[in-house]
Structures are given as C-alpha cells and as structure tokens.
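Can't paste images in this forum, so I'm doing it all in text. The chain is below; anyone willing to post the predicted structure tokens underneath?
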Amino acid sequence: MNKPQASNRSVHSRRHFLRAASWLGSGIPLLGAGTALAVDGGENPEKEKTAEELLNPETKTAIDRGLRFLAGRQVTLGSNRGAFGSGGYPGSVGICGLAGIAFMSSGSTPGIGTYGKNVEDVADFLARNTQKSGYIARQSNDLGNMYGHGFAMLCLSQAYGMSGKRELGEKLKLAVNCTIAAQNDQGGWRYRPVKSDADLSVTVCQVMALRGARDAGINVPDKVRDKTIDYVKKSQAGDGSFRYTMNGGHTTFPLTAAGLVSLFSAGIYEGKEIERGLEYLKGNRESLSNHYYFYGHYYAVQAMWHAGGRWWNEWYPYIREVLVKKQSKNGSWSSSYGAEYATAMATIILQMPNDMLPIFAR
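Text version of the structure:
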C-alpha cells in the first residue's frame, strides 16, 4: 500500500484543525495521538501497539486494493460527478461521505495526496447537494434521510477543517444548523430533518458530525451536547448494551458500539457507561448479522480505538484478520447496501491505526 500521503500542507492543516475549539475544550483535554486512555481516566499502563506493528503487509495490500476499487467507482462526469453508490443507492450522499472519509483516512486531503482529487470531487458533490435548508440530500425528500445527511456532514467537516475552503465552510454551517434544529426535546434525532421521535442509530451520525464541525470551528451550542449525552446515557440497559430508543426496544452490538461512540464524540471518556459498554462489545463481537456487519464494526473499532490499551490491542488484530479474509478479488467488500458502502466502511476500519482524521483523534 502507498504510505499515507501527508504533505507539509496537509499536516499543517490537520494540526490547525486539532487546535480548533471542541466539545472537549471545556474540562476534558484533547489527547495527543498515541496516548492510550484507560477506563479509569488515566494513561493505560499496557503499552499500546503502534501502527507499524498493526498494519502488516497483507493489511496494507488490502487497504490499497480497496481504495483503488473505490476510486475506480467514482462518477467522473455529469451532475453526479464525485458520487458513488450503485444498485439501490445510486448517488447516495451518505455513501459518498463514507468514501471521502476512507480516502482521507489514507492521508489525502482535498486536492492533495494520492486520492486528493477523489476527496475534492466528493466534497464538491456534497456541497452541490446541500439544500438551502442545510439538509444534505440529492433532493429534499432523499431516501438517504438523516443517516446520509450525517455521514455527508461528517465528511464535509473533515474536508473543510483540512482545506479551509470557504464554500465548504458555508455549506457545513447550513448542515449544522439543520441538524441542531432537528434535535428533539429528549436529545436525539430520527430519520427526517425535523423534530420527531429519536433512535440511537441516527443520533450517533449527528453527534459525530457535530463534533467534527465544532472541531473545525463551526459553532455548536453546549446545550446540544448536553441533551445528547443525557439521551444516550438513558438509552443504556443494565448489561451495558444500548437500546434502539431511549424508552425501550431491542439492544444490539451495533447499537452498543453507536452508543459508546456517541459518548466519546461528546467528550465522555470514562465512567460506568463506557466500561460496561466495552465489556458488552467484547463478549458479543460474533453476534452481528450480515445486514449490519459493517455498520456495527465501523463504530466498534472507533470505540476500541478511543478506549485504547488492552481494548485496542486485542480488538484491531481480530477485525483486521476477519476483513482481510472477506475481501473480494477485485478489492471490494460486499453488503446488501452495495460494494461501495461496504468497501468504504472496511477501509475506514482497517486504516484506524493511521490516525489521520481529526474526528478519530484521541
């Protein structure tokens, strides 16, 4: 695999991005790369494995093949230039956003690096499809709903934070305002960009994107964060798992991973909710259905990355080996949501040790 493309300009942009005001700025410090955080709030005494140790040659090859597959599936002409998504999800803003995150996880930034042009086209596509209301969708009633909006807004936040392009910043502000306006009184979000009921799987997409936007310098009121934390904590069951909705419903591995990442994104890195959630993930990692496999592990790898130490040391080698074996001969991974979706998710997961994206920074 090509080494992460981190030019002087992109490294400078990333460092500037990380210095931006964030939800962690009020009382909880933003940790430097490579610092393992224990559940008790101190540095983990167990030495954490480095990226060089974790990214073996087989994994690097798998990542390279996956990114090249994605690059080859990007639309290069017409009104959908920059888009991805075949099958039942053509031109999905959500899949486009995930692909952009995958490219940026390799070290490329808009216009810079091996996949710099791909990232630039992704950002342009998402900007063109940001409605006046701030809803990111190809049409105001896009079936991608708030899942797609959240993934797209997260990608825009990273692209804007690294490039500083005014147009991206303006579109990101609109998207943030749309999400803030749609938060319900309990603190969560649902499928449509309006106040309604809420579920955790949509909520995590919004809180991650809001965290990314705030890190990039976009104003997100503290009350939005506070309501989200309350909502997420009240969604946890006694065994450490998280429910689909605050008031009840099933608990699953993907929802538990989403709950943990919601708390991490809101600046909560310690406490009984974190510890119990991590233990639940560890004991249920074989329970995923194929339908939610990549979604679940996308959040689970983030949860273990933020937990660090023994959690990370044990988790990443497990999912690394599984994903490398699942890769197709053409470099893709498969899912009911399409090869572009699955490949973007898989390459994001595998590239977590690169520590290239500010949203994943500890």
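Residues 145-163 form the longest helix (19 residues). The mean pLDDT is 87.
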